[in-house]
TrEMBL record:
Pfam families: Isochorismatase (PF00857). This is Isochorismatase family protein. Residues 9-155 form the Isochorismatase-like domain. PANTHER family: HYDROLASE (PTHR14119), ISOCHORISMATASE DOMAIN-CONTAINING PROTEIN 2 (PTHR14119:SF3). It comes from the Bacteria.
Length: 183
């Protein structure tokens, strides 16, 4: 099954100021998430960003918010966005949810499992997820795959959202996000 731009939304889980430094690849994770947010903003994909206990962990990285200024930001205390009941109706109304963030084996995993229980088609962007250890990330991805989530890359997301080279934003996306060295 392909991602359908008219029925999908992006959910970015907990890429926050005081948490990013503990990840296995903090700079790479931030750069790849910013890339994904910026590219999907060009495609006008509805986007939600969650923040786990922002009073203690800080807010979403400024570069990410700047890349997707229309994104809705929600706060939570539960590890799962679903258990926290913080997801807006606009996200829940769509069948497909593209998910990235951190930590892969905790908040991303629990959110994805909750979305699957709600019957959502979930696409986890492997190259825009991170954990404190690569082993934890790999275990989280494997468990999500076993639960029926599709493991994808950022480029897979973009090409599926556009569908063809005839998409009105294809030329811009190609020149901006697919040429040269990318994060």
């Amino acid at each position: 099954m392909l991602i359908d731009s008219s029925n999908a939304t992006l959910l970015v889980v907990d890429i926050q100021e005081k948490l990013i430094g503990a990840m296995s690849d903090p700079a790479g994770t931030a750069a790849r998430a910013r890339w994904l947010l910026a590219a999907t903003a060009v495609l006008e994909l509805p986007t939600v960003i969650s923040e786990q206990y922002p009073k203690g962990l800080g807010h979403t990285l400024e570069a990410l918010k700047a890349a997707a200024p229309a994104a809705e930001i929600v706060e939570k205390l539960h590890f799962s966005c679903v258990a926290a009941e913080c997801l807006p109706a606009s996200l829940l109304a769509r069948e497909q949810v593209i998910v990235c963030g951190m930590e892969t084996h905790v908040c991303v995993l629990q959110t994805v499992l909750g979305l699957r229980e709600l019957g959502k088609q979930v696409f986890v962007v492997e190259d825009a997820c991170d954990s404190r250890s690569t082993a934890s990330k790999a275990a989280g991805l494997a468990r999500m795959r076993d639960a029926g989530a599709h493991i994808v890359t950022r480029e897979m997301v973009l090409f599926e959202l556009m569908g063809s080279a005839g998409h009105p934003q294809f030329r811009h996306i190609s020149k901006t996000y697919l040429v040269g060295e990318q994060p």
